[in-house]
Amino acid sequence: MRVMVDQDLCGTSGQCVLTLPGTFRQRELDGVAEVCVATVPQALHAAVRLAASQCPVAAIRVIESDAAMASAPAPTLRLLQRTPSGMPRKTNTI
Amino acid sequence: MGSRSCRCSGEARTPPGDRDLLRNCQRAWRTPVRSANQQVTIDVQETTAACRDAFAELASPTCIHDPYPFMRWLREHDPVHRAASGLFLLSRHADISWAFKATGDAFRGPAPGELARYFPRAARSLSLNLLASTLAMKDPPTHTRLRRLISRDFTMRQIDNLRPSIARIVAARLDDMAPALERGEAVDLHREFALTLPMLVFAELFGMPQDDIFGLAAGIGGILEGLSPHASDSQLAAADAASAKVKAYFSCLIQRKRTDPRHDIVSMLVGAHDDDADTLSDTELISMLWGMLLGGFATTAATIDHAVLAMLAYPQQRHWLQGDAVVVKAFVEEVLRYDAPAMFSSIPRIAQRDIELGGTVIPKNADVRVLIASGNRDPDAFADPDRFDPARFYGTSPGMSTDGKIMLSFGHGIHFCLGAQLARVQLAESLPRIQDRFPTLALAEQPPREPSAFLRTFRALPVRLHTQGS
């Protein structure tokens, strides 16, 4: 698994750093989150998916594996399912 | 009760027939019945018309005392409420969290040229003009530019670095309160601790002398009231007088930091402004300082008050304050959920298009507010929501329940509270120390509420030490 932060989107809330301090950190300069691991160890897969789903601005993208990229479920799917019925849904998922 | 509450703002313009309807509606939601478990529930009358103006109702004495029955009524009967003033108010958790996430997309802040449309009194109000240039009113990319300027002082590491000095302030405040308490006297914990702690932390962050912050703080409550959508002209005038003082003070502070920069937020922002006014304009600089002052401590103070009240009201939950950081965190999050300090969002979210929500169409360009405190008590998000239970937040990411539901008090999306972690750290450093230092703390009298529809807080929180035989 790989994980990325969309640094244009990042809202600098630091929630991911609080959730997984070993995986995410904030740039000193402007508080924008960045990933500090090349790949996510198996033991943290669930936690990273959770951090992605809980990012206030949905800036965290999880890539389950290179092969599965095209068909991988969007990391924010759980949140999207909770949008009120009949509402236009956000489309900026991977 | 029904007729007395009709003093609310809509009355003068309300035709007599509608006035009766309004009274009936208020009577309907205010008729409490006792259920088997003795919790107050609301008499459900399916034919009840929608309440005329929820903002006015939230300012009524009934709601100042306890707004949650009315919020429940709103969620069940009028979850996409259209107030007499035209503002919409969302009260269900799912709708609120959706609106938070859709800010910057389905919703935007008012454009500079539209200020008069959403704030008819903006032309003559300094406070409303300052509000217009705050971070919370901006959309990307301006929002992103401004937020990142100050984010470096609010990173998790920076806030963590403040822990020792916050702990020191906490210990010193408790030391100051101890002699009077130990003599058996009542002490106002709201003034002596809940307000003072965040004010002193704020002074440190801003590089301000302590006396200065105490001088400025007196006007903050009035400014917050003036910004409420239903503020009277005189409330707005009082807010503007206080804002003028704040503005003059910050202009002076900016000059001082320009000639003598230190390691504080004001010096850093002045440096950013002086390097490049495109990065931070004069107006944005003053508005940003003013906005941080407004958001900086009244909300934190209210939450410290509510946390202490929860400690006293639920002794069986006190063990949450005796454990490690994870355990204390759960207690802090539950306090924040149970009593959101800011009842509703103070900034307009403008619908970018017609939005249908639960069968109601919110028209394009409508001003939509969210009733945060109601979403936090929505049983669809938090089971048995009127029960205080820190276990909901045990072992979770900050602000998330074990069911993955968002605790709404800090917002969500692009306007997620900048000071959220700072507030959490202040609470986490305070509560176990209060319990440790004063294990027999008790209420000296019922704390008087501040009569504010927006900020749920107290005028005072008189406490004393419970002694044997008393």
In short:
Chain A: It comes from Bradyrhizobium sacchari. The complex is a heterodimer of chains A (94) and B (470). Chain A is α+β, with helices and mostly antiparallel strands.
Written description of the protein model:
The complex is a heterodimer of chains A (94) and B (470). Chain A is α+β, with helices and mostly antiparallel strands. Chain A has a single domain, classed as 2-Layer Sandwich (Alpha-Beta Plaits), CATH 3.30.70. Chain A is built from three helices and four strands. In chain A, the strands form two sheets. A two-stranded antiparallel ribbon of chain A has the order 1-4. Chain A has a two-stranded antiparallel ribbon with strand order 2-3. The longest helix of chain A is centred in the middle third of the chain and has 10 residues, at 45-54. Chain A is globular, with a radius of gyration of 13 Å. With 470 residues, chain B is of the alpha+beta class. Chain B has one domain (87-465): Cytochrome P450 (Cytochrome p450). In chain B, 49% of the residues lie in helices and 8% in strands. A five-stranded mixed beta sheet of chain B has the order 3-4-10-7-5. In chain B, α14 (233-259) packs across α16. Chain B is globular. Classes of the chains: A alpha+beta (94), B alpha+beta (470).
| Quantity of strands of chain B, as a count | 12
Structural class of chain B: alpha+beta
> What's the name of the CATH homologous superfamily of chain B?
Cytochrome P450
Shape of chain A: globular
The helix fraction of chain A, in percent, is 10-25%
CATH architecture of chain B: Orthogonal Bundle
Please give the oligomerization state of what you see: heterodimer
Percent strand of chain A: 5-15%
SS content category of chain A: alpha+beta
Number of continuous helical runs of chain B:
20
Distance between the termini of chain A: 14 Å
Major sheet summary line of chain B: 5 strands, mixed
Number of domains of chain A: 1
**Largest contact between protein chains?**
A-B, 33 and 37 residues
Fraction of residues in H or I helices of chain B? 40-55%
